[in-house]
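Researcher: Go.
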Amino acid sequence: MYQTTSPKFSQTKIKLTDALLCLINEEDREFDEITVRDISRVSGLSRTTFYNHFLDIYDLAFFVFELESIDAVNLMFEEDNFIKSFTESMKFMRKNKKFYEKVVKLGGPNSFVSNYYKKVMKHTKEYYRNQYLTEEVEFALEIYWIGATLRLEKWIKDDMKESPEKMGENFYKSMPEILRLGYR
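Model: Structure:
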């Protein structure tokens, strides 16, 4: 079962998340083959309970992105260490490799690239706390995170060959100087 220290996530949501990950990781199901009925069966929770917490299966998948990022984001806020934070995020992805291999195939408004980019931009803006977020910095963030998200997608599609540690270092080294001023 996924463990997090954040009170923001209910145990019901965690149980539904575990069911989705189980269907993908253990039953090796494609994302678009999974139904709310399947998640209800594995979690032991009703469909009504599912819909009380999520709009649809895509909403649940995006919640997994939130789970993936919350501990890494907390690490960033607490230790102010980009490489360590990003490395932890990549370790979570590698641990849930089958899930990410499946969701990276999603297109349109439910695409991995679109949703991951929105998530990292939101968390980055929270990290900067609008103190350092000038128009120039925001522009640089948009360009950096679009490229970083596409590179992350490639890493997933290429079987996650590079280590999370190496990826964290490379993402930091490729960051423009104007953004490094806000990170360590």
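Model: The chain has two domains: 9-54, 70-180.
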